[in-house]
Amino acid sequence: MSTHTLAGPPPADLRFHPLRDSATMLRRNVKRMLRYPSMTLMLIGMPVVFLLLFVYVLGGTLGAGLGGAAPVDAAGGRAAYANYVAPAIILMTVASTVQGTAISIAMDMTEGIITRFRTMHIARVSVLTGHVLGSMIQAMISLAVVIGVALLVGFRPTAGLVGWLATAGFLLVVTFALVWLSVALGQVSRSVETASNLPMPLVLLPFLGSGFVPTDSMPAGLRWFAEYQPFTPIIETLRGLLMDEPVGNNGWIALAWCAVIALGGYLWSKRLFNRESSN
User: Fold this and answer.
1) What is the per-residue pLDDT across 116-174, written as a single tens digit (0 to 9) for each?
2) Where are the transmembrane segments (predicted)?
């Protein structure tokens, strides 16, 4: 007869281990990323194409229109515009990467692997945590590649070591927030195609902010939206950190937006996952 009673603790092999289970799920997502590198290459490719397009095709004209005391030729305008547009491309890289997060979540949902995980004796939180951590690793790799390409095409940041460390920390915060939002978008999607489309506004929002042109050049209604949407203070904070310029209130506003997006994405993701578990 078993000596285990209902009042006592469960046996060690029946206890949940969130950290161990999360590490297992992280390894699963990393292995899938390595096994299918085409997804990562596609997510990196779009920001790189936009970077080359705006710097080499449009940079001379757009850079000359940024303003300044002296006239700027095409080469000088292109160099100035590379410094201006790089932060927007960096943010677009994060947004593009988290689009892959939504697709991965939707694939797991439609293929039934999430349902199988729910029947296994693992911590529920580990399933979503593995996706979040894996996506953040993928985003950091993508950012390193895109920043490297930006440096090759003329991006010349003036930040020192502290500025680069602050930039890295800030990008981690932004990525964490957008990843949790994409986890929720992936769960709410009924198909992989829907999951690939729902996060698309995240990729387009830098165009409707201060990422590619100053907001002062926009019509009144669009300028109001551009100045108050969340990606504008994020871009301005990145620009200030990379170019060693004061960020002002943009830093606090950007962090506040990140906190709201991260908390909202986490609570929405948790609710969706628990709701599906109870069905």
Assistant:
1) 666 665 656 667 788 788 888 889 999 999 999 999 998 999 999 999 999 999 999 99
2) 41-64, 84-107, 128-155, 161-186, 198-215, 251-269
**In terms of Cα–Cα distance, which of 246, 263, 249, 41 is closest to 138?**
41
Q: Which structural domain, as residue segments, surrounds residue 219?
A: 22-27+35-276
Per the domain annotation, does 9 fall within a domain?
A: no
Please check whether residue 13 lies inside any domain of the structure: no
pLDDT < 70: residue spans in the chain: 1-22, 24, 67-76, 112-126, 276-279
Angle among Cα 195, 202, 154 to the nearest 5 degrees reads: 125
For the stretch 160-168, contacts whose Cβ atoms lie closer than 8 Å and that sit 24 or more positions apart, written own/partner, are 160/244, 163/241, 163/242, 163/244, 166/241, 167/238, 167/241, 167/242
